[in-house]
Amino acid sequence: MKRVVSSLAFVSAMALSASGAAQEIQIRGPLAGAPSCRRCVQYRVGRVSVSPTYGLSIQDEFDRVMLFGVQVNYYPVDILGIGVWGAFAGVHMPTPLAVAVRRQLASPDPTMPLSDAAIDAQANTDLATPPTTPWTANTPRGERFYRQLGQVNAIAALQLSLIPLRGKLALFQSIVLDADFYITAGPALVWVTERTDFDLLNTTTGIPDPVASRWTDLQSNQVARSTRMAPTGVFGAGLNFYINRFLSLSVEYRGYPLAWNTSGWDENTAARTCFDTSGNARPTSCAGFSDQQVNQDTNGGGRFLLNSVDRGLRWNQMVNFSINVFLPTEPARGN
Fold first, then answer.
1. Rounded Cα–Cα distance for residues 275 and 205 (Å)
2. DSSP 201
3. CATH class of the 39-195+227-266+316-330 domain in this structure
4. pTM (2 decimals)?
5. Where residue 316 falls among pLDDT bands split at 50, 70, 90?
6. For 184-210, what is each residue's pLDDT tens digit?
């Protein structure tokens, strides 16, 4: 019994001491009511940042692009900024998918691959033989396939930046840097280049022309491009690392939705019109496929129509790197 009573007394004492330790500590003296940080460096408030940027697109279907630009931001408070960002496409590169499609069009047999020179030579030979179906207009060979791909040429955006988190980051347990996390969003304009619109429909007869009779036009259209400006929005998030009081490095993710024709193909159409030259050559309503595919078993195939309906909505992504110069060079400090 004595042992039980002693054990209960010991547990009660520990419980009382634990609850007492959890009580708020009342600070007295000159530190009473003081903020957690005095004279803290405020890197952004009242400053302008000028930043050269380098971006690389990711998750592209056919064309990868390097974007070189600049952004300027002003921060009225330490957690909020407003600015502009613009970039132009300096380098375009075909993706592995584009390379594979080009080689497949030139040599369907994987055991007999062709060199790049042979692919382009074959493309020139194909141009001399007009096809009888519209599919060739949709799948040009050689260098012509690369030249019909959609490309992003430039981006310009207004952006609002929110900086919700800030702290210190330790690298290799020896280097400590001030860092912050930010979110950015705003309206944007994107300049894109796409294959020029084309239609096999004969406006006089009201039915599509055979491909062979319009082969010269199709040859020109396979390398003809048009540039347009598309409104959209840009959204991103990134990390900013301060090297000193006025210089920092940033890495960020940016994405923007855009409806465009990345492949240059006749992907879809609202006017799926077919015709049959072996009969009356009268239009027939077709459905279920894009217009260059319908009724291919007839001489002349289906209608080839390339227009805005062939654009698909895609979430375009990129990784952006920047060097940020803050002016004035000396940051403000808190109270």
1. 12
2. B
3. mainly beta
4. 0.77
5. very high
6. 999 999 999 999 998 877 778 777 777
